[in-house]
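Design a sequence for this backbone.
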């Protein structure tokens, strides 16, 4: 029972952090577009860059705790 409890908490916390990070990035994009007085459109190149950055971050997270072993 305890084993499953930490897993659920970890997934819920990760979900909340991911949602907050996504909302913050959207907010920053909107603010930047407003300051430039234009509508922001994500290009294919920018989308690929964002995707690669997310994959790199996930790789780092997956590697936590394995450095000392």
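Sequence:
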């Amino acid at each position: 029972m305890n084993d499953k409890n930490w897993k659920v908490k970890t997934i819920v916390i990760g979900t909340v952090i991911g949602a907050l990070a996504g909302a913050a990035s959207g907010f920053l994009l909107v603010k930047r577009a407003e300051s430039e007085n234009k509508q922001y459109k994500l290009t294919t190149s920018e989308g690929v860059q964002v995707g690669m950055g997310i994959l790199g971050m996930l790789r780092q997270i997956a590697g936590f705790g394995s450095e000392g072993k």
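The radius of gyration is 17 Å.
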